[in-house]
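Much of the work behind modern protein science is quiet bookkeeping, done one molecule at a time. Below is the pair of lines this work produces for a single protein:

***
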Amino acid sequence: MGLFMKLNFLVVIGAVLIYYQFEDLSTDVYGKKEWHNVTDVDLNGKVAIVTGSSSGIGRALVTELYKKGCTVVITSRSQKRSDAAARDTEKDVKSEGATLGGKLDPVAFDLSDLNDVRRFVKYFTNKYDRLDYLSANAGMLLNGYTGPWISKQGYDMLYAANYLGHFLLAQELLPMLKKSNGRIVATSSIAQWIHTDDLDSLLPVNNKESNENTGGFSQFEAYGNSKLLLVFMCFEMQRRHPDVGCTPVAPGFVKSKIGTPSARESNPVGDWFVIAVDAAFGAQTSVEALLGKDGASPKDGGQTGVFVQPYYAPPIRNVPKQIISAKLFRLLSISVVLFEFALQFASWGNHKWVAHPDAYNEEFAFRLWVKSVEACELS
């Protein structure tokens, strides 16, 4: 083990010992739980949308819902990839001998283009009269990305695709979700621990510049920012709309194509790393949020402020600012991310956990929501 890894390991262990003195983490709320048994769940008559579902975690979630009889709208930026995902999913399910009770509806739209999001919503609401499950799963990294770098509405492409498009999609589909007692799951990441110290820089108005020449770490921080923004969205949704379950999750370190310039490339992220799990495992937290009891709306008894992840990490909620400097906390955040690499196999399971402490800043979450509504030109 290198010196850097040893130092980070010591920081993590120290953080656990320190923060347990400042936390009140009841095992009734936080801790490792059993995965909800979805073996006999019947989803006939239910309708789901899974964004970014032509491959990886999204397609694995589509397969799970489809096998149980759900009608699932498969989405990607390419109609060709969506069609191929539908054909491959049907083929895979048939090969398992499962009864094909559900339906697949492959569609293409661009989450980074707010007008295209509205076009998709119009298509969906004209065709369906209910929405039971919305998975805000699509996401992009900037490693290997070659552009475009600015969205059609003038926002940083990653910001628009990973966060703002999903925010608009959820807002436009809220009436149908409420009607169906539906649920939302947002695919966040342990990377939400690595984000900017200046929360105001996460507001839409401050994300109109390209990340093209910002460098590798800054580009990864932008990714972490977008994943924290999804957590903010979920927690504020819980407060504003307690009749809709809305849960942020981390999938784990998964073999997927998120980091490649194009999903057509053959080598998904993680193939080279022995701890990366298959997409079916990566979809487990999303399945838990959509079908398990912990993903229920606050109105129906669901717990608010919960981040579901598939491995243990230090339970940090209320940061003792008086003893932890910003630089030390940033080092701690990097160390938490290392847990995904170090303990994924050792502690794999349904961990009902906490997000980064900043995600519980209700004042900023309120402002972010208001400014996001304005950016999406919602009345």
In short: The longest strand covers residues 71-76. Strands lie at 31-33, 47-50, 71-76, 103-108, 133-136, 183-187, 245-249, 307-309, 350-353. Residues 3-375 form a domain with the Rossmann fold fold (CATH 3.40.50.720).
